[in-house]
Each structure stands twice: as structure tokens, then as C-alpha cells.
Specification:
The chain has 159 residues and is α+β, with helices and mostly antiparallel strands. It is 33% helix and 14% strand. The longest helix is centred in the first third of the chain and has 13 residues.
């Protein structure tokens, strides 16, 4: 048993000769279908994506585009360098939802990273970025960074 009290997942890794979109969908399914307590995942995941057939249909109808190089990051032996995060595609004016990374810096201090999602039905990622601009509706610990003198130096899309 792992420290969190349930058996670790056994992930069936897709073969490398499959297309990347298939691999990323298979890895995602492994993560969201792990046998874990209900509190471990948002219950919406298991409700909407409860069966692999449903998940596969959603993936085929709404493909996810990953940032360049992101697919290989989880498989690397070391975390990505900060320059990788700075190279993520900028959040622009397109009206879509996504997962973003904020690089926050303060001279003489370690770089901070915030990963979040912009999934509001109307405002999407740009609405979330406006929240950061206005310093409103920020997660509790993210709010501490600007208060401590950190500034957001890059806003990049992960997917």
C-alpha cells in the first residue's frame, strides 16, 4: 500500500509505435480510471468519463492539442527546465478552454509555478487570465505570490 492508503495504480503503458494522440488519450484514461477513493478525483470525471467507450468518443470528437514538447515531459528523468515553461505558447485571444502554466518570478528568489484551468463556459482561459490581472478569485496559495512581490512573467498553454 502507498502512503495515501490505497494500492498504487498499475498503468498499462501504450506501445511507442502508436500515434501520439492515441498514446496521450491512453495515458489520460489510465490516470482518470485508477481505482481510488471518491475523494481522490472530482466526481464529475467518473460520471462523465465512467466508461472507456464514452471517454474514447469524447476524445475523437474533441481532440486535445498539447504544447510542443509536453508529451515527453512526464517520461523524462528530470523535471523540465524553467526555459521549457517560458517557451510554452502564450495565452492569446482565442476563445477556448485549456490548462495553463503561470511562471512567477521575484529577483533573488526561486521561481514559482502555478498550473490551472480556464474552463468557464463563457470566458474560458482568457477570463481566468483577467482574474490574475485584476487579482480577483485567485486560489489561496497563488494569491500569496503577488502579495510577496512575485510577478507573472509568462502565461503559457499546456493544452
Amino acid at each position: 500500500m502507498a502512503q495515501h492508503g490505497f494500492a498504487p495504480a498499475v498503468l498499462a503503458t501504450p506501445e511507442r509505435n502508436f500515434p501520439r494522440d492515441f498514446q496521450q488519450n491512453a495515458y489520460t484514461w489510465c490516470v482518470i480510471s485508477v481505482d481510488a477513493p471518491e475523494w481522490y478525483f472530482c466526481p464529475v470525471y467518473k460520471t462523465i468519463l465512467g466508461k472507456q467507450e464514452d471517454f474514447d468518443k469524447i476524445c475523437s470528437e474533441t481532440p486535445i492539442a498539447l504544447a510542443p514538447g509536453l508529451f515527453d515531459v512526464p517520461k523524462a528523468d528530470t523535471p523540465p527546465p524553467i526555459d521549457f515553461l517560458r517557451s510554452l505558447p502564450e495565452v492569446d485571444t482565442a476563445g477556448f478552454w485549456g490548462i495553463y502554466a503561470l511562471v512567477m518570478e521575484k529577483l533573488g528568489f526561486p521561481v514559482k509555478l502555478c498550473v490551472g484551468s480556464g474552463t468557464n463556459a463563457r470566458d474560458r482561459v482568457l477570463g481566468r487570465m483577467r482574474d490574475y490581472d485584476r487579482q480577483q478569485l485567485l486560489p489561496r496559495f497563488v494569491k500569496l505570490a503577488p502579495e510577496a512581490g512575485y510577478t507573472i512573467t509568462h502565461r503559457g498553454l499546456l493544452c
